Amino acid sequence: METESLVRLGAFIGILLAMAAWETASPKRKPRVSRLQRWSSNLSLVALNTILVRLLMPAGAVGAAIFAETRGWGLLNILALPEWTAVIPAVVLLDLAIYAQHVIFHAIPMLWRLHMVHHADPDIDVTTGLRFHPVEIMLSMLIKMAVIILLGAPILAVIIFEVLLNATAMFNHGNVRLPSGLDAILRLFVVTPDMHRVHHSVVVSETNSNYGFNLPWWDRLFGTYCAQPQAGHMEMTIGLSQYQHARRQSLAWMLSLPFTGQMGDYPRQRSSSS
Predict the structure, then answer these.
(1) Where exactly are the structural domains of the chain?
(2) DSSP letters of 226-250?
(3) How many other CB atoms are there within 10 angstroms of residue 50's CB atom?
(4) Quick one: which H or E segment has residue 180?
(5) Which strand (E) or helix (H) includes residue 196?
(6) What is the Cα gyration radius of the chain?
(7) Which residues of 149-181 are buried (b: 16+ CB within 10 A; e: fewer)?
(8) Cα separation, 242 vs 264, whole angstroms
(9) Nearest by Cα to 107 from 219, 211, 195
(10) pTM score > 0.85 for this model?
(11) Which stretch of DSSP H or E encloses residue 71?
(12) Cβ-contact 101, 15 below 8 angstroms
């Protein structure tokens, strides 16, 4: 468990710094809000979430995998597959579960209220990929732990998935330039920044598309893929239409947003019926 924590921490810091350097050297879009203002709030939220998860769910996803393995619970444990053959399907199925969870958080108004904190960022960069309300973080961890136990996912698969999910979330939220040809190739295998940026558009139909964080296949398979934003990447507006004010980015505002904010027409149930 200690080694796993060190691996995840090292990967987190390394990728965060690398993406921040890339964004500085070759930004895709000009920020509307100062990096200092946004980063101080976004990273404060990350620190708060990390503390809460450690206090309330110290075992985390890896603990759930250990629990399932010691009891022989879960599909892959029942099938008694060797660990090396179970790792890849476990990682792929965990990614599918995260995709489904993301769709659900957009579909159910109560959950969308929590998820609004992520989408209310007026710019999108590496820190946006880490900006989630603490209640959403806790619910996401509970869902992930339940899926791990149901699957009987191997411990190694869970560690790989956690590192990949964290890394790709920072990568695909990055405010970075990629040549269009390279982006077209990469998005066959991983969600790219240009692909995921569409999901942060103020346009409702675009917000309700491109839900993948890691693998890009689920959006194509389930009909939620949108190749490009209507206004183009340079002219599109990021965030939520009801929250386009730079001053609305303090930590206190983000924590209160699910309970005091306006949902707009973004939840899928509303947008599909309008």
Answers:
(1) 2-273
(2) --S-TT-TTTPPBSBTTB--TTTTS
(3) 14
(4) helix 180-186
(5) helix 193-197
(6) 18
(7) bbbbbbbbbbbbbbbbbbbbbbbbbbbbbbeee
(8) 7
(9) 211
(10) yes
(11) helix 60-71
(12) no
Asked if residues 63 and 1 have their Cβ atoms less than 8 Å apart, the reply is yes
> Which residue in the block uniquely carries the two structure tokens 């973004």?
266
DSSP type of residue 31: -
66-75 burial code (b ≥16 CB/10 A, e <16): eebbeeebbb
Token couple for 82: 């060797």
- pLDDT tens per residue across span 10-54: 999 999 999 999 999 999 999 998 888 899 999 999 999 999 999
Closest CA to 190 of 165, 209, 154: 165
Closest C-alpha to 200, from 220, 178, 218, 174: 174
SS3 of 226, please?
coil
What pLDDT does 273 receive? 43
